[in-house]
Design a protein that fits this description.
By secondary structure, this protein is α/β, with parallel strands linked by helices. It has helices at about 30-45, 50-55, 65-80, 110-120, 140-145, 165-180; strands spanning about 20-25, 60-65, 85-90, 95, 100, 110, 130-135, 155. The longest helix is centred in the first third of the chain and has 16 residues, at about 30-45.
Length: about 180
């Protein structure tokens, strides 16, 4: 199955000075979060070899093997935001249409809980947050948005149904390469 191809006439995303990957996949899964981090590091090295050791600190992967670890990731991210970090967040997980994001422990992070976590970041970034949720059914979170509250992100990319890991990997690769100005 070929990934969907689309062309944007105008691209809009929140300005970011770091990319954080929250990896909710088990060791038995395709390691999209880990490979994404390595590819980001390769991109940073190619763009500015002299500053790579400094710049690589702004591409970080968090392991979220349980609901508790997921919450701890967001505590650390919100703490970084208090210091001026404006992250772009990638979340790699299995998604269930009703239960939310799965973790290796078997626990789920509900869609409302995900929105609350994103909102905690958005409150500390002046309303600016780009989120890419590389998980099946991840657009379910958007269905849970309240019309009475402010959006917990400025830009959100997800999937409305089941999707193969390889497709997710290729599509999200296109996204982060475009954030960096494309391939060298």
């Amino acid at each position: 199955m070929d990934p969907t191809k689309f062309t944007l006439r105008r691209s809009a995303f929140s300005p970011g000075n770091a990319i954080f990957i929250i990896d909710c996949l088990s060791e038995r899964d395709l390691q999209t979060g880990l490979s994404r981090l390595r590819e980001l590091h390769d991109l940073l090295l190619a763009r500015d070899p002299e500053r790579f050791e400094y710049n690589k600190n702004f591409a970080h992967r968090f392991e979220a093997g349980s609901a508790t670890k997921f919450a701890e990731c967001f505590e650390e991210i919100t703490g970084a935001c208090e210091l001026g970090i404006r992250p772009i967040i990638f979340i790699d997980a299995h998604g269930h249409s009703e239960k939310g994001l799965g973790t290796p422990s078997g626990e789920f992070i509900g869609w409302d809980e995900l929105l609350d976590s994103l909102d905690s970041v958005t409150q500390r970034t002046g309303g600016e947050l780009t989120v890419i949720v590389a998980a099946c059914h991840s657009m379910k979170a958007v269905e849970n948005l309240s019309l009475q509250k402010r959006l917990p992100f400025a830009f959100y990319y997800g999937y409305s149904s089941e999707v193969k890991a390889g497709v997710v990997d290729k599509e999200t690769e296109v996204i982060y390469e475009s954030l960096g100005g494309g391939k060298n």
